[in-house]
Model the fold of this input.
Amino acid sequence: MKFAVMGGTGLIGSQVVTNLNAAGHEAVPHSQSTGVDVISGQGLDDAVAGADVIVNLTNSPTFDEASLSFFRTSMDNLLAAGEKADVRHFVILSIVGVDQVPELDYYRAKALQEDILTAGSIPYSIVRATQFMEFVDAILSWTTDGDTVRLPATPIQPIASRDVAASVAEVAAGAPLGGIRSIAGPEVFSLDELGRFTLSHKSDGRTVVTDPTAGMFAVVKGDVLTDKDAHLAPTRYADWLA
Done:
């Protein structure tokens, strides 16, 4: 099959392209760097022409309220291009618990992306993943003040990007789900515990202080960012760090 992978040069997209091509398909990466703009629509029709499947892994450049406009415009443009090209399957990557945290603009924007896809005419699949292991360092940096990192005890279930890419490629190559597949790492940590474990492993001298008001994950209630019923990926966090 032929796949048009939007955001195909990014962290997940580049691995999805590699996985699909290794499986004998033709996966073509598209991004602004290849002349395709999902907001202006530049290059979209040519990018999806002849494709059986669109895999949309593009992401908003911001996490604030502007992300709502990004996902609304990009999905409208991609769906229109896909319908014109008679694409048979449209896949997006979303977030476990995305519809349970309306306090976060970015999560509301991703929930909107899901809603636009499900309301469209193209058969679809949604892959929801938990937080990427690759993003833990960034999460720590957001709330670092000198030698102190403030983190809430929010439960998370980190997953390696290679496991996310493998699942996205598998779903994209299969029949449309007409629904959601949730994927997650094999272990649940509280975010403050994960921060301490990470800093200890890296011999980083910063100290983690548990602060229920710190950072974007402070507004998350309960364990909505975890999923005990998700498809569990094989990579454990300690092995990924090593």
Observations:
- The chain has a mean pLDDT of 97.
